[in-house]
Amino acid sequence: MVVRVYIASSSGSVAVKKHQQAIVGFLEANRINFEEVDITMLEDQRFWMYRNIPEEKRPEKGNPLAPQIFNGDDYCGDYEDFFQSKETNTVSSFLRLPSVKDSES
Q1: Phi, psi (degrees; rounded to nearest 5) at 54
Q2: Cβ-contact 20, 5 below 8 angstroms
Q3: Rounded distance, CA 15 to CA 18, Å?
Q4: Residue 68: exposed, middle, or buried by beta-carbon count in 10 A (0-12, 13-18, 19+)?
Q5: Per-residue model confidence (pLDDT) at position 101
Q6: Alpha helix (H) ranges present in 9-87?
Q7: Local confidence band at 103 (pLDDT 50, 70, 90 cut-offs)
Q8: Which of 14, 38, 64, 68 is deepest in the core (most CB within 10 A)?
Q9: Of the candidates 35, 44, 43, which has an alpha carbon nearest to the alpha carbon of residue 6?
Q10: Which GO terms describe its molecular function (predicted)?
């Protein structure tokens, strides 16, 4: 499974841009493999993202905003969920990453 971060490169929202940068920066700094998917350039991926976000995570009006995080086809969450997992030191389980076994024993 691959962690995918759905971003909007042409977002006019400063908050969206900061949230996207925070997620991507954290993943890069922690050497977590991920794929960035730009929903402003890939319409089919934008619609896939919209369809695969659980009903309870969708806004009352309009479409969900980037960034949204998936592991394969499994929805992980949005920026708020990511931030919470960072604060509670549970990012690996939030991203549904396999447990790291100590192979150096």
Answers
A1: -55, 150
A2: yes
A3: 5
A4: buried
A5: 54
A6: 14-29, 43-52, 79-87
A7: very low
A8: 68
A9: 35
A10: SH3 domain binding
